[in-house]
Amino acid sequence: MYGLVKCELLKLKRQKVIPISIIITFIPILLGLFSFKTNYAVFKDVNTSDWLKAWSQVGTFYAPIMLPIIASVYCAIIFRVEYANGNLKIILSTPVSRKSIYKSKVIIS
């Protein structure tokens, strides 16, 4: 299983997906901080710390909006690589079970 996960990481490294995914991860953080800054008067009345208020805004944007988008893009990229040159047929003909192949792809995505 470790070898399959390592192989999937190498495929993603060649696709240059990791830097793009890191940049995409910071977008909801910036959106949450911008929302916090624009609505600071609303949050000023609550008796909690500023960091907790800012973090709640980040969670508001990250969880329902960006997380499913990022996960689906990762999955699409992972499976696109397999279908591009017919690699999925080759991978499925190896003595590794389909379940472990799909588990490794899910772990990476």
UniProtKB/TrEMBL annotation:
<dbReference type="Pfam" id="PF12730">
    <property type="entry name" value="ABC2_membrane_4"/>
</dbReference>
<feature type="transmembrane region" description="Helical">
    <location>
        <begin position="20"/>
        <end position="41"/>
    </location>
</feature>
<feature type="transmembrane region" description="Helical">
    <location>
        <begin position="61"/>
        <end position="79"/>
    </location>
</feature>
<keyword id="KW-0812">Transmembrane</keyword>
<protein>
    <submittedName>
        <fullName>Permease</fullName>
    </submittedName>
</protein>
<keyword id="KW-1133">Transmembrane helix</keyword>
<keyword id="KW-0472">Membrane</keyword>
